[in-house]
């Protein structure tokens, strides 16, 4: 299974390399070869219990698929923005690709360093790949860009030491690379933009995303330190939690956002949300869907109470939420992507805040949330945090947040790139959902080395093709320019990756589909 997963990742890397064919795509190929060998060292460390931190069990390290995501995103973003003539974002793509390669190399060197006896061949390969990447960076980056890349690496190292210690068994090494690498980029960008505020420069919704992500992470770190010295389950602690959340929100996050957007954040947000009648209709519709999702949770818990305390939600029941998320995102993508962008940020902040309330058992809702959500746990929620619903939201939202709007003059990219914002809907909302439902109910022929079925994968590919046809009908901005073969190949590769990966597919699959469609 690991070998097939690696072959699929190599197929994506070589596809991007064939399209781009520059020094960074050659570096991506070198990084993939090196990560392939280092991945086996991580797998052995996890099996022997020799890893530095406690990682999620029942999964391989996932180093290769995770290592290639950020570098390939940077490479394809650089190419798209170069074609559009937007130099600033072309250089930003170079920085993203370079920093992603350094983060992946750091994890590989860590695995090689703690493996006993020292693996000579992997050491040599890591050294060669690292030399090629550093040589390319030396001749491609300016001094300020090199400093920015090193800042991201430094933030990643410190975040890894803190969060992997505080949150055992929540991530595999690959998932940690993706999640903590993403947070490191966001924090670095926020610091950079806060120090270089230029009035009227930058989109307020981008600043809103940066401040919201950093704000909830800082909030979590603050309360984790605080509740090591006091019991979080008491009413006094709960009152202190709510009071300090208000103080940090109104006293730190709001002024920070005010400095960046040069206006009152609350007034800006209200004006933005109710700017047009279409937005009002969408907000009412989304409120109805949110109430429906809560209804599913309460109904399933009532069913558990009446049947058996050991009752767990089935795969099909969990996929109800995928259908609800698809129904949420598709109208937003068609009618108002900026509103969807902001609403997804707000939803992420609420999800993470509610997870803090559940984890710290904050009264009056902490224990209730623990009871309600325990029904929907699966083997991937083996750590103290429940992250699968947050990963689902991230998988649907990242293609919207990472879409290079400045490099798409008409609001959409040409060819297959027009489907980039729909990557989450196609890969997770349609493909993963249909594969799980049909595979678990009708599947008989299993892929070698996995529990996934041939029927599930084939049905997922067919469903995504139908979804693309429906998008063409209902979204007039999408024009594929006869790039149907590339779309079919992209969808097929990502669907096969879903069958073989043991990583969080809600997070990994949309990013790989986005890379293929942007390429």
Q: How confident is the prediction overall: mean pLDDT?
A: 87
What oligomeric state best describes the polypeptide chains here?
A: single chain
Number of helices: 19
Question: Major beta sheet, specifics?
Answer: none
Question: Based on CA inertia axes, which overall geometry fits?
Answer: globular
Q: What radius of gyration results from the CA coordinates?
A: 22 Å
Structural class: mainly alpha
Compute the number of strand runs.
Answer: 0
Poorly predicted ranges: none
Name the beta content range.
under 5%
Order of SSEs, N→C? Answer: HHHHHHHHHHHHHHHHHHH
What gap, in angstroms, lies between the N and C termini?
A: 26 Å
Query: What is the share of helical residues?
Result: over 70%
Layout of strands and helices, then pairs:
Layout: H1 2-20, H2 23-48, H3 63-84, H4 87-114, H5 120-138, H6 143-166, H7 173-195, H8 204-226, H9 235-261, H10 265-273, H11 277-307, H12 315-335, H13 337-359, H14 366-374, H15 388-401, H16 423-442, H17 454-474, H18 484-500, H19 505-518
